[in-house]
From TrEMBL:
<keyword id="KW-0811">Translocation</keyword>
<keyword id="KW-1133">Transmembrane helix</keyword>
<dbReference type="GO" id="GO:0005744">
    <property type="term" value="C:TIM23 mitochondrial import inner membrane translocase complex"/>
</dbReference>
<keyword id="KW-0653">Protein transport</keyword>
<dbReference type="GO" id="GO:0015031">
    <property type="term" value="P:protein transport"/>
</dbReference>
<dbReference type="InterPro" id="IPR050365">
    <property type="entry name" value="TIM50"/>
</dbReference>
<keyword id="KW-0472">Membrane</keyword>
<feature type="region of interest" description="Disordered">
    <location>
        <begin position="90"/>
        <end position="122"/>
    </location>
</feature>
<keyword id="KW-0809">Transit peptide</keyword>
<keyword id="KW-0496">Mitochondrion</keyword>
<feature type="domain" description="FCP1 homology">
    <location>
        <begin position="198"/>
        <end position="326"/>
    </location>
</feature>
<dbReference type="Pfam" id="PF03031">
    <property type="entry name" value="NIF"/>
</dbReference>
<protein>
    <recommendedName>
        <fullName>Mitochondrial import inner membrane translocase subunit TIM50</fullName>
    </recommendedName>
</protein>
<dbReference type="InterPro" id="IPR023214">
    <property type="entry name" value="HAD_sf"/>
</dbReference>
<comment type="similarity">
    <text>Belongs to the TIM50 family.</text>
</comment>
<keyword id="KW-0813">Transport</keyword>
<comment type="subunit">
    <text>Component of the TIM23 complex.</text>
</comment>
Amino acid sequence: MMVTRSFRLPVQLALSRPRMLLIRSQRAPFVSRSHPARSNATNPPPPPPQNDSPNSGSPSDLDAKKSDAPFKKGIQLDIDASSLVDAQSISAPSGEDGQDGSSTQRTNAKARSDSNSNQSDFGQRIMTQGAIIGCILLAGYGVWMLGRDLDEREHEVFHDKEGVNSFFGRLKLRYDVMREGVNKPVWDHLLPDPLPYPYSRPYTLVLDLDQLLVASSWSTSHGWRTAKRPGLDYFLGYLSQWYEIVLFTTQPFYVVEKIIEKLDPDRRYIAYQLFRESCRQSDGKLVKDIRHLNRDPKKVIMLDINPEHVSLQPENAIVLEPLEGR
């Protein structure tokens, strides 16, 4: 026997759902309760119901209605769509138009991405404020450390300096020492102690490398090429008898290593080699300070092509014209 039930959903239930139920047809399909394993032979279908109402229509009309049903068995759900609310029936309030000119709904709801962006902005502000406060505290601690009282070792160094009894005086003294440590060469004594007689030389000759002993040029066809000054081998061999030759260049070691190996492969002429880290910084320029050579400045002679390199001791220097390799 077929049973017909009518369900009516209130408007409040349709509005409370996150997704609205759109009904395209008032008649829902049959829901079959028959077991698939059963056969029609064992359980024959029930006879069609007899309708005694006078308005039921002719038997031919009943057969046509039965043929329209998609299933033979089950419960038919007849839902009244008049009580449901269509999604298109909800229109936006007046005065709110979309991009295409049609009216769109505007609510006070916020997207989840907006809340996440607000949380990320708040976290970034907290981190920025924490970093600023940390920098201020660190700077204050550094100023306090520079202006603190002198210890025993510092008192021996600064006892005759001006301002040792004031906070800002001690701060200035320590700052000058730090700046001097950055600008000066990496070692106080760049060369070892002189050899004893008769192995030592009475004088020290400091030579530059680039554009004095050699000259480098670059071209698209050959790349880098280095030319040696004419008569350089005789010059080094002869002066090495009377001078302790020191090669002092402002170039890093890895740049001029191969060139020095070509100039003096047996280390017979050049006694010592000094590079960029042995120079002093003075007003942003590299300067060669012979006071750190561990030699008597009165017995030191410098040959260079740049007057800025010998600006601290110009009386000990001979400035020559640069060599141009061809």
